[in-house]
Write a structure and sequence with these properties.
This protein has 47 residues and is of the alpha+beta class. It is flat. It has one domain. Helix content is 21%, strand content 32%. Strand 2 and strand 3 form a beta hairpin. It has one helix at 12-21; strands at residues 6-10, 27-31, 39-43. One of its GO terms (molecular function) is monooxygenase activity. Keywords: Monooxygenase, Oxidoreductase. This is Monooxygenase.
């Protein structure tokens, strides 16, 4: 069984729009602790 993890970096507005556009995926939005305003979107849905 192959699984894929995808990580995307960007600002909160863009990543939140991506997350809202794909509710069928298990997307998690993280905020960087070291840099204010930096976010990471984690997709471990395998799609």
């Amino acid at each position: 069984m192959k699984e894929q993890i995808v990580i995307t970096f960007g600002d909160e507005k863009i990543l939140s729009e991506i997350k809202a556009a794909h509710p069928e995926r298990d997307l998690v939005l993280y905020q960087a602790l070291s840099q204010q305003g930096e976010f990471m979107l984690l997709d471990h849905s395998g799609q």
